[in-house]
Amino acid sequence: MDIEKLLAANPAMTDIHLTEGLPLMIRVYGALKKMKEIAEPQLFAELISSYVPPDRQAVYQRTGSADSAFSLGNVRCRLHLYRSGGLASAAIRILPELSLLGADPDRTWLEKVSQLSHGLVLITGSSGSGKSTTMARILSLISQKRACHVVTLEDPVEYVIPMEKALIHQREIGRDVADFPQGIRDALREDPDVIALGEMRDSETISAALTAAETGHLVLGTLHTTRAKDVPARIIHAFPGDRQEEIRGLLAANLVTVSSQMLYRSGKETWLLREILTNVAAVAHLIREGKEEQIPSYMEMGLSQMRTMKQAMYAMKGISERERERLLKSLE
User: Is the pLDDT of residue 332 over 90?
Assistant: First the structure.
């Protein structure tokens, strides 16, 4: 398998799926397409030897799954190895080159986030919604415009952020540091201005991120949550009852903004839809008082760049009303 040739023939390809003994499948414009080439055992051996470091190879042999990332020229790829029915399998995500992507529809919001000196910023959405790309756009803006120190913690490192004005250290979980909580504790001793987390998976990581934000750092993180309004409750309920009041206070005081995004594809067109929650004083009060269900009413007002996903869908251009109605029903 030649990934570069596959990309040249299918420039809109976003994913490659391999299952031992079966034809390759690629995802183009959101749909899977079967190829003629068969994923032979030798293909997996070549993938592992070429793109998976020895420590990750050991994890794969021990657990049956492992993650890695690699570059092919200017293209960055994320590799997930796993076994299914006893057969070797792999999923390769093709990360779009930032310079070749169209402008983000919320460029102003991205620039405001990149200028923040402290606080917690959360980028949420389902798998494949472009969270990594949004994070990379923000980090690239920071690198271009700010003489600061950025520490990222990723599993694995996806986009490689070029060092321009900023000093960038991208640390990979398992290779450079044991886990996310340890990475955050380490980062606080590394004179950081910005800490970026590839994923906030558990209460220990969330707690460490809140502490970092509280001590005057800008913390960027991602969550697998599909609606911005649900993020405060998701974070708070990750903790046992005896800590939830404390976490409410920390979150109300340190959260700056939350975005939740999704990609909608129709034919060869792709739309990035994003809802934005800004932690204005009224929202902070709702979080502190445990009244998160009232947050959408403030988002609908449109203050401080806020919007709901429904409002984002109504603002879409270039789709039929039937498509819009179908999208709106998906929110119900």
Answer: no
